[in-house]
Request: fold
Amino acid sequence: MKKFERSRLTYLSVFLVSLLFIAGCANSATPNSWEEQAVDGQGLAERNFIESCHAANEDLTEMVREDFCGCLLNGIKQAVTFSEFKKLDDHIKKHSNEVTATGLGDAFPWFIEVNDNCAGSVAQN
Reply:
C-alpha cells in the first residue's frame, strides 16, 4: 500500500506540476524573491506555491497535502535559488502543453529529486 501511495504522489505531483506553477506564479504581481510581499511570515511566491499545490492535489487528504506541499516548497528552496525556480516556472509557462516528467527531469533534475524525496517521505508517514 505504501509503495502504491508513493507512486501515486510522485505521478500526481509531476503530472500536475504545470497547474501548480502556472496557477501559483502567473499573476500580474509576480514576485522576484520568496520573501517579497510577505504576510504572516510567508512571501507571495510561497503562498501561491502552497495554494496551488493544494489545489492540484485535492484528491489527497488535507494532512497529506499539507505535508507534501510543505516538503516540496522547503526542498525547492534548499535545492535552488529563486532565480532557478523562476526558470522552471518560465519553462512551464512557455511549454505548458508539452510538459512531461522526462522533459522536466532532463531540464530540471533538482525538481524531480525534490519531488521524489517528498513523495517518499509522505508515503512513509
The helical segments are 2-15, 17-25, 44-56, 62-79, 82-94, 101-107, 109-124. The chain is about 70% helix and 0% strand. Residues 2-124 form one domain. The radius of gyration is 14 Å.
